[in-house]
Specification:
Layout: H1 8-14, H2 17-47, H3 53-56, E1 61-68, E2 71-82, E3 87-95, E4 99-107, H4 110-114, H5 118-124, E5 129-131, E6 146-148, H6 154-158, E7 162-170, H7 177-192
Antiparallel strand pairs: 1-2, 2-3, 3-4, 4-7, 5-6, 5-7
Helix pairs in contact: 2-7, 5-7
Length: 194
């Protein structure tokens, strides 16, 4: 029989019901926030003139998880278009204990189509970053795996097998999250897809 022991701190947490109920309320609030964000995105995406119809036609999806590097997360993918050869998605993300982020990710045919327009985005807002990690499943944004978009030209961007252009705000700015998502998505639509 396994002899699994908990520390005093772990025993205190496992018997503290309000902690998990509070966590559940936060995850529910995040789902509601991203649901409302999605409704705003749908209006902006519909107006994007340079977004392929095949991409516009895919329904949005909100995902929840409990274990990205041990922590809960909530993610909205919209637009979201994934094939073996090419992908184009905008991922709005909540990561417990870290930040809210928005990521434009693309590969395949979409890189030559949209990478040159990223220069418009960096001229409009210099806070966008490019994730340089070679693992496309790496979502963590930190100073060791990003370069400011403004420091990269189109030729460098077009050489990559996939691109992830990101922006984030701390969770302490919860009240600003709706405007952050809306304004960032609108910047993508206006500077990359119009």
């Amino acid at each position: 029989m396994a002899n699994v022991k908990l520390s005093a701190a772990e025993l205190e947490l496992v018997t503290n019901i309000p902690i998990i109920l509070t966590k559940n309320r936060i995850i529910k609030a995040t789902n509601e926030l991203l649901g409302e964000t999605c409704r705003q995105y749908q209006i902006l995406l519909h107006a994007a003139q340079n977004m392929p119809n095949v991409v516009k036609q895919v329904n949005p999806k909100i995902y929840n998880g409990e274990n990205y590097q041990g922590l809960p997360w909530v993610m909205l993918d919209y637009p979201r278009y994934f094939t073996k050869e090419s992908e184009l998605a905008i991922r709005s993300y909540f990561w417990w204990g870290h930040y809210f982020s928005i990521t434009l990710q693309m590969s395949g045919v979409f890189i030559p189509q949209y990478a040159p327009a990223l220069q418009h985005l960096s001229a409009y807002d210099k806070s966008w970053l490019v994730l340089i990690d070679e693992d496309k499943w790496q979502h963590e944004i930190n100073s060791s795996n990003t370069i400011p978009l403004v420091h990269l030209n189109s030729a460098i961007l077009m050489e990559k097998p996939f691109l992830k252009v990101v922006k984030k705000i701390p969770l302490a700015q919860w009240a600003e999250a709706p405007a952050f998502f809306h304004d960032s998505f609108e910047a993508l639509m206006n500077n990359v897809f119009n």
